[in-house]
Amino acid sequence: MYSRIFKEPPETIIANGKACFGTYNDISSTLDIKGIRAPFAGLPLPIFITKLRIKSRLDYIFATEKYIGFTEFFDFKIMGTSRIIFWNKETGKKYAYFSFMGPRRRFIPHSTKYGSCTSFNKKRYMKVFWGENHQHMAMRFNVKGDSVRPDCSGGYFSSKYSECHSDNLFVTPAPVSARCSATWFTSMQIQGKTIINGEEVDNSKGLAAMMINRTYLKSHSISTISWGIGTVKNKNIVFHLKNSNLDSTDNDTYNENILIVDGKQTALPPVLMTHPFGKDKDWIIQDTESMVDLTFTPVSLDSNIRNFIIMRTAYTSIYGTFSGVLLDQNGEKIILRNFPGMLNSNLIRL
Q1: Alpha-carbon gap, residue 210 to 234, rounded angstroms
Q2: pLDDT by residue (tens digit) across 159-181?
Q3: E-strand spans in 197-311?
């Protein structure tokens, strides 16, 4: 059966101009990948030039009794974007809010010990933050509606000492060893509430995951990411599966796919995600190791295309359900039926 070894994390991700590739059971104190020696065609360019190609992304995925969704930040150095999307799990009703963030020194912090990522727009306030040594993590939002969307606000809080907590670091070639991608992935239990048009519509416990990624982005980057988050037979389950044109050429050894069951992690193999009948129809997600065999059935889809002066972004975000089988590190089958989750298909052109 497929396996990847979880190692102790390095003190720094980049050492002596080279990346410390691997899968790690914990995280380094900083998530910083600048300093790689000659990352572009072996040309000895100054670091201040090469680091301009490093882009960052933060995703906070949450699921409570009634709602499921995510908050997402993109850091493009000279500008940033943020958005929150969540769905009512019973009705499939969607709430989506987007914000542009103007020039700022840094949108997503390097430190994993403590930090925050915030959109300060008065109509689109969103914040994800973690405390000293990330002993607690939280997400808050307060967004104003319009003629078709209501005012929404809410917040979710978690402790490092919850049963479902895990911290992992993935450092992978992107797609070759001259450049790298680094991802901090953490899962957690949460307590949170959601308010719509001044009325509290949900106040319950749930699960969440946060992912921060830094990579040397291509001029044309495509990625597909799926998350499953919920419970099966009283077990808390979170999984993350990804395809992109930045995946390592040695994808079996280096990837970010992971399954968390009550805080215990299983490294998952590379997968192929296809939608033979269209994005709004069933997606097939499979590997070659018989550990992942899933069908993702969309319930509600959100498409968002933005054109800026220097770039173009196209996001497709889908709420739906997973059915199929996952295998954990002990070979135990986890059978999913109508298991809640989301899928993101992103294109970024610089």
Answers
A1: 22
A2: 888 888 999 999 999 998 889 99
A3: 199-216, 220-232, 235-244, 258-261, 264-267, 272-274, 283-286, 292-307
